[in-house]
Amino acid sequence: MRLLNRLTSVSRLSIQFALASFALGTLILGLYLITANNVFAVLGFGFLVIAVPFNSLILLSVFIQLLTGKLSIKEFFFSSYVLLLNVPIALFYFHIVTTYTRL
């Protein structure tokens, strides 16, 4: 938690949003796998439609902060890394659901 306190507000927001996206996506996937209810598959797809643009905008804002000199390169890479870690996880979750769901 000390690390989050030392980050700029945009970096802190990006990391918090990435963690929240991961947690919510994992919760939706877990509920789908436990219940096998297609409502959770549709909810997950809807979540992707909303989360991808928001993550992209946050990544863009982090990049703009870097270009304007308000963010160090180290902080930029750390924030971007945490945000972009969700991409392969989301693709894996998407693969799981599309493999086992007939929508």
Keywords:
103 residues; mainly alpha; 86% helix
Question: What do these coordinates show?
Answer:
This protein starts with a helix and ends with a helix. The model has no long low-confidence stretch (mean pLDDT 89). The chain is elongated, with a radius of gyration of 16 Å. Helix content is 86%, strand content 0%. It has 103 residues and is an all-alpha fold.
The number of helical elements comes to 5
Strand share of the residues?
Answer: under 5%
- Average pLDDT figure: 89
Report low-confidence residues grouped into runs of 5 or more: none
Distance between the termini: 41 Å
How many strands? 0
Short structural description:
The protein is built from five helices and no strands. The protein has 103 residues and is mainly alpha-helical.
Question: What topology does this entry show?
Answer:
Layout: H1 2-6, H2 9-35, H3 38-67, H4 73-84, H5 86-100
Helix pairs in contact: 2-3, 2-4, 2-5, 3-4
